[in-house]
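Researcher: Please translate sequence to C-alpha cells.
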Amino acid sequence: MARIRVTLFLTPEFCENRITNWCLRLIDEGHVLDLICPPKGVQIVKRLPRLMLLSIVSMMANPPVAITQVQEWVARFNGPGNGRDEAYGIGTDGDGNVYVTGFATLAPPAIYTDFTTMRYSPSGNIDWIAYYDGLSHSTDEARLIHVDGVGNTHVCGTSFGGLPGSAKDYATIRYNAAGVTQWSSRYNTPAYRDDYALAMAVDRDDNVFVTGVHNTGLADFDADWTTVKYSASGVQQWAVHYGGPAQFFDVPRGIAVDNMGGVFVTGEVCFASQNWNFVTIKYDRVGIQEWLRVFDSEGSGYDAAHDICLDNDGALYVTGYSSFNGLGRSYATTIKYDSSGTQLWVAHYGDESNAQAAAFHMQLIPLDGICIAGRTGAFGEYKKWDFLTIRYGPDGTEHWAQRYDGPASSRDIVNALSIDAASNVYTVGSSYTTASDYSSDYVVIKYNRDGAQQWIVNYDGPGNSLDEPTDSVVDNAGNVCVTGYSYSGADQSSSDYATLKYSQPGWPSIIQQPSSSGVCVGGTATFNTIAASPTGITYQWRSNGVALGENERIAGTDTSTLSIYPVLVSDAGSYDVIVGNEIGAAVSRAVTLAPAGGGDGNFDGKTNGLDIQAFVQVLASGPTTEANACPFDMNADGIVDTFDVQPFATMLMGL
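Model: Translation complete:
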C-alpha cells in the first residue's frame, strides 16, 4: 500500500482555542498525517473523518510525553603514541563526572601500552589523566573499573611482571577523586606464569575482590581460577584457587559480594573432554569455600556462565549459555539460587530458530527480577547474530524478549547492559554495517520496563571504520554514558577512546542533594532534598538500596523530607531518594546515617581505635550527660562515666 501524506490546516481561531502553533505528526496504517496551525489564512486541503479529527484535537490538548535523547558530547582520546588506545570500563560519581579506564600507547612500539584512566567533567572536559606503567614497562591493559559516589576509583587489569621469568600479573589500583594514586597492588601466582584479571567487585567497606585465571603449567591449556581479596588499603588478605577435574581451560567470568562478606564467583569449568559446565562458588569473608554448585545441560557440550548478581534478599542469579540438541546450538540460560546455594529455577531462551542464543550480561531490576542481554541467531549464521535482551521476574517468568537486527542484517553483538532507577533498560553493542569484520557502529537502545523500545541511537566514528562500545552506565540524573574504542582510519592502524554522553530531556533534576547525618542513638535524623520536574513529581527514599515504608518511627518516605525518630543503631547505612516523573527517575547522591552509640565517638559508623582518644577526653571531664558524649554511654544509663570503661574496652577487643 502506498504511503499517503495528508495535511490538515486549521483556522487560527481554532488553534488559539486549543494549543497555538502545535505541529503533530501521527502515523496510522502507513499514512503520514500533518496537523498545522498557520498564523493566518486557512484552507482545509483534505477533510478528515470527524472521529479522527476529534482524536487529533484530543492529543493536541493532552500532548504525548516526548521520549528521546540528546547527544551532549563525544570525547575522543588519542594517546601520545598515536597507536592502540582502547577504553573498556566506565563509571560515574554523584556529581555527574565520568570516569573511563582502558589502555593507551604512550610511545612506540605500538604493542607497549599502559593503564590509562581519566575523568571527564559533566560537560565532557578532561579533568585529569592517570597512567600506570607496569614493572617491565611492557604491555599493561586495564579492563575493569568501579567508581563510588564521591569519585574514589578502582581499576584493574593485566600487567607484565618485572621478575626474571615472570609473565603477566593482576594489577589493581585505587585513585581518589582527584586522580591521585592511593595504592596499587599486584598478584602473581607462585609459579610465575600468566595471570589474567577478568572481574572485580568492591564491597561497602572498600575491600576489593578480583578473580581471573592463572596458567598452571601442569598441562597444555590448563588454566585455573584465582580469586584475591584486598583490604581497603590495598593489602592482600587471601587468595584462593579452583580448577576442574579435567585440568583444562577453566575461566571465571563474574564476581559479586554481599553485605556479610560473602564472595560469589561464577564461570565455566571443564569436567571431561568437550564437556564444560557452569560452576558457582561461595567463599566466606576469609576465603573458605562454603559451597559449590554445578549446572550441566543435557548431554555433553559447552555450558558457560558469564555474569552474576545478587538481590536484596541474598538470592543469586547466574546467566550464560548452555548446549542443546547437538554441538554448536545453545540456549541463553539463567539460574537462580537462594543464599545457601539451593537452585530455585532455571530459565532457557532458544529454539531451532534461535539456536545460537547466549547471555553475557545481566543487571538486577530492584525488587522486580533481572534483565539479561547477549546475542541470538539461527544455527550456523555466525555473521547474522542479533542483539538479545530479556527480562525475567523474580520467579523466573519471562516478561519480555526483544531482538535487534541492524540495518545491514549482519553481525550485531551486545557488549554492555544498564538499568536506570525507573527500571528502563539500555542495551549497548556494536552493529556491523557490512558483511565484513571491519566496519561497525555503536548502537544504544532504550526499552521501558515493559519491553517497548523508546529510542535507538548509533555512533559512527570519523574513520567510518570499526567502532566498538565496551561498557555503559546511567548516571543519577538519567544521562546515558557509553565508552569503547573507535578506529580513526580505514587501515585500522590507530584507535582512540570514544566516550559519549546522552541526556534525556524531561527527566526530573535534583537541585539540592541530601546531606549526611551524624546523630545520637535515640535522636532525630532528617534528610531533605529539593527537586524540579516539568511534570508531576514523586519521591521514594531508600536505605541501602531498599525502598523505605512508613511506620511509627519513619515518616516522609514518599516526600521531599525523610524523618527518623528515635534513631536506632540498626538505622545506620546509606540513604538516597529516587525522584521520578512520567519520563524517568533521578537518584540523589547517597548519604550516610551514622547513629552514634556503641563507642562510635567520631560518627564514622565504626567503633575502633580511632575512638579511644575521644573516649578518654570525655571521661577526663567527669561524668556527663552532654549530647555529644552519647556514643560512649555504653551501659545506656544516660551518663558517661567510669562504669562505661569496661564495656567500651570489651567492644574494642571484640572487633
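Researcher: Any highlights?
Model: The helical segments are 12-17, 50-61, 612-620, 645-653.
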